[in-house]
Amino acid sequence: MALRLGDIAPDFSAETTHGNINFHDWLSDSWGILFSHPKDYTPVCTTELGYMSKIKPEFDKRNVKILAISVDPIESHKGWVGDINETQNTTVNFPIIADTDRKVSDLYDMIHPNADDTLTVRSVFVIGPDKKVKLTITYPASTGRNFDEVLRVVDSLQLTSDYQVATPVNWKHGEDCIVVSSIPTEDIPEKFPKGHREIKPYLRYTPQPDI
Ligand code: BEZ
């Protein structure tokens, strides 16, 4: 069955371009992103892994580890990484799982037979330090993902796990947040001393509390 938000991200051992890992041990107390791509030496995947390498410092700042996966073998990954580095002007700086037996792909339901019965689609899982699945995204093979959006969601997830706020449409780090509805309006000043705006009794904004 497909993984749902709040499920424990299944643990596994796997061979990667950075050696063998046990997923939960490797994550330790970090957040994690596990993302699949259909195939090595393909154009969209090349741009995706190149871009992810470039913005990895942003994920590092947020204590998020990155792990890629496809069903191609390790030697293929290693050769392709050279192409990514060359063509995308970067250095791939995270491990890529060689899931040749599709063990991890099956655990995470990354193969969608009605799209392609042998290759992984473009899945993204964000996993919290509690090892629970916080976000799932599935893109078709023909559409490269927006990893800036994944970073934006990580910002929202980390903020909303620490404060009683939610983030509105298209929110970005630094913008006003929504006070969760379980907080009575009269309690807002004490909890959010930066102030608040009440648009409707159910729609109350406050400045981002952690900056
Ligand atoms: C690509 O990464 O370019 C790609 C991979 C599989 C199918 C279609 C496109």
How would you describe what is shown here?
This protein has 211 residues and is α+β, with helices and mostly antiparallel strands. It has two domains: 13-145, Glutaredoxin (3-Layer(aba) Sandwich); 163-206, Antioxidant, Horf6, Chain A, domain 2 (2-Layer Sandwich). The chain contains six helices and eleven strands. The protein has a five-stranded mixed sheet, with helices on one face. A four-stranded antiparallel sheet has the order 8-9-11-10, covered by helices on one side. Helix 2 crosses helix 3. The model has no long low-confidence stretch (mean pLDDT 97). Benzoic acid is lined by residues 38-39, 42-45, 141-142.
Concise overview:
The protein has 211 residues and is of the alpha+beta class. It contains six helices and eleven strands.
The overall number of domains is 2
Average predicted confidence as pLDDT: 97
> Quick one: CATH superfamily of the largest domain?
Glutaredoxin
- Rounded to the nearest angstrom, the radius of gyration is 19 Å
Give the strand line-up of the largest sheet. 5-4-3-6-7
Bound molecules: benzoic acid
Taking the sheet with the most strands, its summary is:
5 strands, mixed
CATH architecture of the largest domain: 3-Layer(aba) Sandwich
Report how far apart the termini are: 40 Å
| Series of secondary-structure elements, N-terminal to C-terminal | EEHEHEHEHEEHEEHEE
Number of helical segments? 6
Report the β-strand fraction as a percent range: 15-25%
Shape: elongated
Under the CATH scheme, which class of the largest domain? Alpha Beta
- Helix vs. strand class: alpha+beta
